[in-house]
Amino acid sequence: MSVPTILVVDDDMEMRQMMAQYLRKHGFMVHTAATGREIQHHISAGRIELILLDVMLGEENGIELCKELRREQDVPIILVSALSADHQRMSGYEVGADDYIAKPFNPDLLLARVKAVLRRVRRSASLNYRRNTSLFSFAGWVYDGKKDEVLSPDGIQIALSQRETRLLKVLLANPHVPLTRDEITTAMDVTQAGDINMDSSGRALDVLVGRLRGKIEENPKNPALLKTERGVGYIFAVDVTQTEI
After folding, report:
1. How confident is the model at residue 129 (pLDDT cuts 50, 70, 90)?
2. Averaged confidence pLDDT in the chain
3. What is residue 136's DSSP assignment?
4. What's residue 200's pLDDT?
5. What is the dihedral of CA 150, 156, 157, 160, to 10 degrees?
6. What is the dihedral of CA 118, 123, 125, 130, to 10 degrees?
7. Which domains does the chain have, with CATH numbers?
8. Which pTM value belongs to this model?
9. How many of the other CB atoms lie within 10 Å of CB of 71?
10. Which pLDDT belongs to residue 116?
11. H helices of the chain, where?
């Protein structure tokens, strides 16, 4: 796995150097910047995987810079500020910040937040990227992504609803990975499909899982493929091979 590259943006040289040194000590590649122009220079020069952006940058405003970056970039942004009131935090989230850390902060907290944002972004990218593979094979079953067909080990085509198919795609793309209900519903692109409505309790997803089990499990009451992961959500507990057609 490549070393994540972080851009630390602060007009206070000591603070900038302190954060950069600490993050480098913990295995990150770090660049620094003090202005919006320098941010653009680093982004243009190479891949930046996360930006730590101070809200107060002399004559520039980190909130506005975050808003501008969001128009063209999807790089994760953590705002850093001495201003920690709720409305100030909300202004950061409203312009697309992924997290908000108040100064003064414990360096260990900064490290934990950085790792958490990177982990969340990578999981999201993984869920959305890998599920597009054309052909999945698992426990004798085959899902053909191009034809949108599911074949049982006996070669019988099984009819799935749109929601059942979306759920299956997410599970097949992440075998042996415990997934929370939120991760599954997010990966199903529920906000982009008007006919899919998952309530916040997760009950609708549980019902959907039950329906899918009824179609692909030999014994739905004692599932061998789609298992419940206690305290987490669900896990697709068999090997899956993915090939392009």
Report:
1. very low
2. 84
3. E
4. 44
5. -70
6. 150
7. 5-128 (3.40.50.2300), 131-243 (1.10.10.10)
8. 0.54
9. 7
10. 85
11. 13-25, 36-45, 62-72, 86-94, 107-130, 162-173, 181-187, 203-216
